[in-house]
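Sharing a chain and its predicted structure for anyone who wants a worked example. Both blocks are below, sequence first, tokens second.
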Amino acid sequence: MALVRCILEMGMGVDIHGKDYTSAAKRAVFDALHHSSLGFQRLLGKTADDMRVDITIGIPNPRAVDKDAVVATLPHGTGYIKVVQGGLEIPSENGQDACVIANAAVMVSFDDGK
């Protein structure tokens, strides 16, 4: 199987209060996915469910992200996720809370059949 990368989209997601890293990551993936409308897969004799979707999330606390919950937001394809150090965390004035910003890179690939 040889995978051919067809799409690379970026997105950003924010959780304003509560330091919910998973929500910020899910919003980043949602943002990336909604920059594109894929229809070209039919030219390849494929369906949207044939996609391999590789997600990379950059967030301040990678261990706090529920990877399965993020992958579950994908409407089609088979998802794989990697969470790395990145994004931003902006503390509140009193230090009790923070705004969490996640970045997502979403790559869509198809098997070329070779």
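Comments welcome. The helical segments are 21-33, 67-71.
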